[in-house]
Design goal:
The chain is α/β, with parallel strands linked by helices and 209 residues long. It contains 10 helices and 5 strands. The protein has a 5-stranded parallel β-sheet, with helices on both faces. The radius of gyration is 18 Å and the shape is globular.
Length: 209
């Protein structure tokens, strides 16, 4: 039996997952949590084969934290199940060692299929993400600059788009304000804009936020 846990901020997702898996002979949903601290606590106490995690989970302020989870709990494979744009976030998330990236527009059966494949040792990503990864390797630099944003730059841009100030972002990412200012300048340069308003608008146009 595949032992699962779900880490998601939304009660309706908890309810849906619990309802779907509760009578399963193949899956055992052994825990439902709504923040990163509780997820770490659960993984420390119970053997979990696959953790289904939302990238917008409370406390998961940086994609780099996924690396720590994978390092600290190597027996647990991670399936990201999130609303965040697949073609922007999946490539950087895959670098951390996750096993699957499933967008929340997928059906529950598609999620189930991804979990089964991950349990068999596969890395599961959509054809669209595979195509984007190929573009990263083959496309012209001028055509793919926005795809070359680092995971940290994407995180800073996401928080800027939410209206957070440099000081707030620095605290969330455990960095200093000067570093956040440097990231902002890089973003302006890479996305070919000159001010924060245009930066946020460009991010929305490209589905980065």
């Amino acid at each position: 039996m595949i032992k699962l846990c779900l880490a998601d901020n939304h009660p309706v997702v908890h309810y849906g997952m619990d309802s779907y898996f509760k009578d399963s002979s193949e899956f055992n949903l052994i825990g439902l949590v709504n923040n990163l601290d509780d997820l770490i606590g659960l993984l420390s106490k119970k053997a979990v084969n696959i953790a289904i995690i939302d990238l917008e989970l409370e406390g998961l302020t940086s994609i780099s934290l996924l690396k720590s989870l994978i390092k600290d709990f190597p027996e647990t494979r991670i399936v990201l199940f999130t609303n965040l744009s697949e073609h922007i976030y999946a490539p950087n998330a895959l670098k951390t060692g996750i096993s699957a990236y499933v967008h929340k527009s997928a059906t529950i059966d598609e999620l189930k299929n991804a979990i089964q494949r991950v349990d068999q040792g596969e890395v599961v990503i959509s054809d669209a993400v595979k195509s984007n990864l190929e573009l990263l390797n083959k496309g012209k630099k001028s055509d793919r600059l926005y795809r070359k944003l680092s995971s940290r730059e994407i995180e800073v841009l996401r928080y800027l788009s939410e209206g957070k100030k440099n000081k707030e972002i620095a605290k969330l990412l455990d960095l200093n304000e000067k570093t956040i200012s440097t990231y902002k300048l890089r973003l302006l340069t890479k996305l070919h804009v000159t001010n924060l308003v245009d930066l946020v608008n460009k991010a929305k146009t490209l589905d980065i936020v």
